[in-house]
Design goal:
The protein has 15 helices and eleven strands. The chain is α/β, with parallel strands linked by helices and 317 residues long. The chain has two domains: 172 residues, Glucose-6-phosphate isomerase like protein, domain 1 (Rossmann fold, 3-Layer(aba) Sandwich); 120 residues, Roll (CBS-domain). The longest helix is centred in the middle third of the chain and has 21 residues.
């Protein structure tokens, strides 16, 4: 195998992406703004390798807050045209701008009333001339030794599609919580879980007042199979926490310490976390503080749950 040629392929494809940097201008901004303003779906289409790239671009749009689906140009004129509505935007991908199937589709899309955006090499191509907005790729030499197989051009199309999708995502203010909603499964979903999804509540989260004897608090901890109890003030705000570690320290000093009021031996002003924080953020606090339990409090400082390290690890974070 020719290792140097492999390196040349990578250089050619990276050069194709770099060539787009200086080409971006008003047409790109207009395309991004039109996608952001779309009240329907961004319908992506492309033939062959461009179609495969289009499917990925559509998936990226959909996962970052822009409703989108892919329509095969050939299938569209055999019934799938019904997938396109007036409020949609058609994003057509064709390096040459001369793909027969796409050119057959565009007039019907215009009859429907949807806007047509295109990513193509030249604005004066057949596709470019019938598009509302054209984002030009410019002339791109393929990495293929024959200069024929789509390679550098499809790499450029993919990068340009990512730039569009991610610019629109940023303009929407699409945040981590939004992203988590669209990625509930797998590693991404686990990383983006909120504390409220994992914390212990109800009977699994014992809460006592400061005047409660340690012995009573221990009974509640045992019943809840918990590692700690939250202690609150008269107005219900978190005053402290009492953990297994606090119990060991208490008994090492006073073997009869279980008769003491828990407010006198609790850990005051413990680290806390809000229910809307990401579990990954809470795990960082647990590790930095070297603790196993983290009280969860609301905006008023009242305990609403307890996050235990075992629950975090059990959630796969």
């Amino acid at each position: 195998m020719d290792l140097e040629y492999a390196r040349e392929v990578l250089r050619t494809e990276s050069d194709a992406i770099r060539s787009l940097v200086d080409r971006l201008g008003d047409s790109f901004v207009q395309a991004a703004e039109r996608i952001r303003a779309c009240e329907g779906h961004v319908v992506v289409c492309g033939m062959g390798k461009a179609g495969l790239i289009g499917q990925k671009i559509s998936a990226t749009l959909a996962s970052t807050g822009t409703p989108s689906h892919f329509v095969h140009p050939a299938e569209a004129v055999h019934g799938d045209l019904g997938r396109i509505m007036k409020k949609d935007v058609l994003l057509a991908l064709s390096n040459s701008g001369e793909s027969e199937e796409i050119l057959r589709l565009v007039p019907k899309v215009r009859e429907i009333g949807a806007a047509v955006l295109s990513l193509t090499a030249r604005a004066d191509s057949s596709l470019g001339r019938v598009s509302d907005i054209v984002v030009e790729l410019g002339r791109i030499e393929e990495a293929c030794p024959l200069g024929l197989a789509p390679s550098a051009s499809t790499t450029a199309l993919l990068a340009l599609g990512d730039a569009l999708a991610l610019c629109v995502q940023k303009a929407r203010g699409f945040n981590q919580e939004d992203y988590a909603f669209f990625h509930p499964a797998g590693e991404l979903g686990r990383k983006l879980q909120k504390v409220a999804d994992v914390m212990r509540t109800g009977d699994r989260h014992p809460i006592v007042r400061e005047e409660t004897p340690v012995s009573e608090a221990l009974a509640l901890i045992t019943k809840a199979r918990a590692g700690a109890v939250s202690i609150v003030t008269a107005d219900g705000r978190l005053a402290g926490i009492f953990t297994d570690g606090d119990l060991r320290r208490l008994l090492s000093k006073n073997p009869r310490g279980v008769s003491e009021k828990i407010g006198a031996v609790m850990t005051r002003t413990p680290s806390t976390v809000g229910p809307d924080r990401l579990v990954a953020d809470a795990l960082r606090i647990l590790r930095e503080k070297r603790i196993d339990e983290l009280p969860v409090v609301n905006g008023g400082g009242q305990p609403v749950g307890m996050l235990d390290i075992q629950d975090v690890l059990g959630a796969g974070v």
